[in-house]
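Minutes, project check-in
Item: structure for the 349-residue chain
Input as provided by the requester:
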Amino acid sequence: MKQPFGAARNGAALDLYTLSNPAGMRVQITNYGGIVTSLLVPDRNGRPGDVVLGFDRIAGYLEKHPYFGAICGRYANRIADGRFTLAGVEYTLARNDGRNHLHGGVLGFDKMVWKATELAQFGGAALRLACSSPAGDEGYPGNLDVVVTYTLTDANELRIDYLATGDAETVLNLSHHGYFNLADGGKSDVLGHEVMIEAARFLPVDAGLIPTGELRDVRGTPMDFTRGTEIGARIDAADEQLVYGKGYDHTWVVNGAPGQLRLAARVFEPTSRRVMEVLTTEPGVQFYTGNFLDGTLTGKDGAVYRRRHGLCLECQHFPDSPNKPQFPSTVLKTGDQYTQTTVYRFSVA
């Protein structure tokens, strides 16, 4: 179902699309930034409730916000000093996070008006979003065509499939930046949520949240989520990494082979009994606990989004990979296809 959703700053008409399934799930997505504005999921009593942070109206998304529900690109996460070298040529990107480049720059994919097409397919309802990014966009080389398909399956999965091609060698790292709160959609904090991350290693960062290049064992550290653990159990521990991130804001190295769809994380919320499993083909998942939310944003139903009122599990390649040759490559060669899949699967325990 499609309905008007206001206009972008350039006057382009925006729409809001609703996908639903027989099990009582519903997702709403706008063609502005590919943003998931709401996601209704049944709780232990079968009552649907919104589990993502965001705004009731487009006005909130047109102002500065922390990428609520958006598609991030061309490069999700950070690139150090806003520069990288490719095939002997140095490229300078927009610096929008201190000295660093973050989530595609000043006008990334999160602020783009995408071309939307509703799809009817077996096993679920889908929305295909397409955009083109010209050569030089935010400093990146090559013209790039991107298609992102959201599918709400009858198995209570929100599936995101990404496809991109370019006419010149470039770097690319796309991700979905949803903020989740399985209890109440952001009215309270997420410290009681239990998280398991299917990863034996994580990426330590420096004070600017740029990975050092090390893949560090999680054992014996507050980063060990190999068993379900309350977020609040160790988030304020006297640990250098937690001090740098002001909590969790790090990439974990997902166990198993990149390219294969596999479990990355599991979240359980004890009051609603909702469970969210995250599956991905990507090498890493960024676990972020809303440390920079500060109560200045009021979202849906008057909810004030305070520190740690939402959590993110952003499936992606590693931050600063263009400057870290030891990391899995994010280079997209001319004529090659970029593909990845991430699935958010919901159930009740």
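Outcome recorded: The helical segments are 58-62, 240-245.
No further action items on this chain.
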